[in-house]
Amino acid sequence: QVQLVESGGGLVQAGESLRLSCASSTRALIRYSMAWFRQAPGKEREFVASITWSERRTSYADSVKGRFTISRDNAKNTIYLQMNSLNAEDSALYYCAEAPTSTRRFTYWGQGTQVTVSL
Questions:
Q1: What is the rounded CA–CA span in Å between residue 8 and residue 19?
Q2: pLDDT digit string, tens, across residues 40-82
Q3: Contacts of 54 (CB under 8 A, 6+ apart)
Q4: Are the CB atoms for 108 and 97 separated by under 8 Å?
């Protein structure tokens, strides 16, 4: 059973930074990409950032470009989301997702880690 375990969420003030981590239980050979999504109360889940595993191609939502950076550690089967200049609109439950090479679709999901930004 695939497990994605997120960590690093918390409560910060506007303008501060946080780094989220997500560790995967799958093997890198069958992993196409990983990503972060977020969902705020009363809103749809939205894409934040993604990275392809072998080529390390990254993609970002317009709302986080220039502030967030996604990266990966192959040896640890882990991705990170460095979030800088956080604002209240970034408050949400952040989910990690993984797309296997077989489908290239985000099939596996973590339980989420809460990020709350206070004014």
A1: 6
A2: 999 999 999 999 999 999 999 999 999 999 999 999 999 999 9
A3: none
A4: yes
- Note whether 35 and 50 are within 8 A (CB): yes
> In the block, which residue shows the tokens 């109360």?
41
Round to whole Å and give the CA distance between 105 and 15.
33
Residue closest to 79 by CA, chosen among 102, 100, 61, 56: 56
Q: Do residues 84 and 17 lie in contact, with contact meaning Cβ atoms separated by under 8 Å?
A: yes
Strand-pair partners of 56: none
Q: What is the pLDDT of residues 16-32, one digit of tens each?
A: 999 999 999 998 889 99
